[in-house]
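Data card: per-record layout.
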Amino acid sequence: MLHFWYKEFPQYPRDHKDYWRTRLIAHSLLICCCYFLILTLLNVFYFSSYDIALIDALGLIASLSICIWFNKTAQVSKAAWVVALMIVSLIMLFIVSAKGHAHSLFWATLIPPFTFFLVGRNWGSILSSIAFGICAYLVYLQQQLSITIGLSALFNFIEVSIAHVLLFRFYEKTRFSAYSHLSKRNAEIKLLAETDKLTGLYNRQKFDFELSQLLSENNNERKSNIVMICDIDHFKKVNDTYGHLAGDNVLSEFANILQNKLTNSALIARWGGEEFTIILRDSSLDNAINEAEELRAFIATHLIDNRALTISIGIAKAHVDDTALHLLERADKALYKAKLQGRDQVCVASDNLTKTRYENTLSKSAAI
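The structure for this 368-residue chain is written out next.
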């Protein structure tokens, strides 16, 4: 039954601006149908108020008709206006018929939440002002009159209170759902902004931010952190010989190797082109050199996308009062020296000069 009321319209997906308006229209019509049915029965069989029962019956018929029409046409703007005008008209018709007695004025408090959310704040303000102006006039006419609080007044109070609870419960659901959806989208956007599309690793912007944060912590806590710059040797030849798609495959597979071979705490990013940057948090220099050598040796002895390749790595240790620029410059100089010395090796930068550690010499792949 609820699937009929809360119909999903393909043209209004969850992220569409009118999605929740379609839900509000359906919710409003469901509340109206239930209320008008109950009120019709109460006024006929309990209060014997046949004139009021007729108003309620008209409301029930109108609500069902609008629901059927809306589910067929999905015309949100027109349906919102029709529902808003129906609710305002029937409420005011009831209040005027009751001459504002028996606490019928309570029903007017439902007009602002319905009209504001259905037809916007401007028209909501206009319709609500008109309704409250009529209510004020009815109160004015009741001056000097004795007010008797009977059972009908109690029913009006209870019915309006329940309607408010149902209505604002729905609004809170829409607010929470919209907030959750927005939070999810923001997380997705943030991930896209931080991630290299090809490799799935962090991009340079994210790397620079994390490195700056790390250096700030390093100055305060005196931790030992390492930065490595890794470059695929002769990568341009791969693109020139096999094409850029083949080059993309090499970069993607190499990124997977980096994630699998390096420690889980390592932050890995694609720095640009065939260069990758790595942060080893709270790591000793010896440990960083060992990890770099193991990675270099693995690449030299395994095919990447069915191609034999080698890598060169420059390592720099972060020092107190280091800046991201100076640390990266030292690691880049170490990488440059590794390239000059024949590639397929690891070089470590010191404060003022670069020293080379080149263990387990392997045959060079200068042609690659």
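Known properties of this structure: The longest strand covers residues 226-232. The two ends are 68 Å apart (CA to CA).

See the next section for split statistics.
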